[in-house]
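Bug report (template v2)

What were you trying to do?
Predict the complex of my protein with pyridoxal-5'-phosphate.

What happened?
Run completed; filing so the output is reviewed.

Input:
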Amino acid sequence: MELHYTSTRNSDVRVTASQAILKGLAPDGGLFVPESLPSLHASMEEIKEMTYQETAYEVMKQFLTDFTEEELKTCINRAYDSKFDTEEIAPLVKVDDTYYLELFHGATIAFKDMALSILPHLLTMSAKKNQAEDEIVILTATSGDTGKAAMSGFADVKGTKIIVFYPKNGVSKVQELQMVTQKGSNVDVVAIHGNFDQAQSGVKAMFEDQELAEELHARGYRFSSANSINIGRLVPQIVYYVYAYARLLKYEEIEEGEQINIVVPTGNFGNILAAYYAKQMGVPIDRLVCASNTNKVLFDFFQSGTYDKNRDFVLTSSPSMDILISSNLERLIYLASGEDADETKRLMEELKAAGCYTVSPKMQEMLSDFEAGYTDEEGTKETIRNVYKRTGYVMDTHTAVASHVCEEYKRKSGDMKKCVIASTASPYKFVHSVMEALEGSMEEGDELELLPKLQEASGTEMPQAVKDILDARILHHIECDVEQMKNTVKQILGVEA
Ligand SMILES: *Cc1c(COP(=O)(O)O)cnc(C)c1O
């Protein structure tokens, strides 16, 4: 049976999976969502014997129904190969009585690789299926990790160009170096004088700009998105939650049907939404715990039912979660409204106009699968230090936020179900903050000199991705003001009037 996709803001929209991937965003500014959430076909008993790639096929075929088996398997095999430093792709590591689902074994050592290794293949396959001949231009705003993972995924993929925007002072040294040293004749990266939300709003405005779309189409280009709003990002993320559950079963850490909780360090709400979709597919997941840093707009939302982005934006040591507009939350709002596109549209328009909306008590009740917690900078550091002292396991700042929230949730609720924490980045990616946490204090100095120290402390080998940037040449130098983003894109594409 074919699964179609509609828009969170307009129930008249009806497209195939490949069309949704190709477009990225619905024409009305809404996000594509499946008309219904499919159930897992295979049993956990079967899935626990599967490799990551086989699990990926099992999950993704339910969502991308207009792809043939061969097409989908080709995409999967091109994505999850030796770019990952372990055959398991997403290993589950037990530390004390908690399980860390390590999603950082790909090319850029953060969880964005899980989806961005496959998105370019899904996208070019989708273009072929729909006879779209324009060159695909990927526009992406990044808080640090998406940008590099997207550049790496799209580099030299035929028929595509990619332009990434990042906040000049909002990413770590390693993240910035990873981006500005990226090779590939079709990649560009621009540092903007602004924050991530401004970068994301600027990109969204370009997607909604019909005049710009026509101008580009005349030159043989079409925009698409690699941001986590693309369902081609979301669907591959469901896979590792199914895989994690199956591994727990395989290792006899849980019994068949036993419920577990999932804790996710959250920014744009893509990763945790994927966990929720996995639950809807039938994976025995009880609580979905949403962990935030000081930018705790989601925590406040789950507490009060009011989403309010009117607050100071704080730069933290977990920059990939420094977000005040969590785009993917719109898909949850849509589900909570009973798939009411008019209501979702109204709330999102309120968000745009007033920066704030409140959901009805009934909708709030629909969100009761979610728990929320947050921690500040001190709590993040303390968690890294304490877990290391107790167990020798070194985690990155984002994972530490989740780990802290997980412990607090257990303590407050008394809920002793097994917890899987989405471990979203390698500690090497945030070496300065991690070493500061381990050593208690830190002198200013070159972040890169800390890498060998981390290697010593963690007893884990420095990832290839880090070794690669140490002596790579800087290839990208463009900077611009927020207001100049559109002109910069035109210049890069050579479509300046
Ligand atoms: C992107 C990112 C997150 C947040 O994930 P969302 O899907 O945006 O909620 C958390 N940690 C790291 C390291 C990331 O790169």
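What did the reviewer find?
The pocket of pyridoxal-5'-phosphate is lined by residues 110-112, 145, 228, 265-271, 320-321, 398, 424-425 (CB under 6 Å). The CA atoms of residues 57 and 73 lie 7 Å apart.
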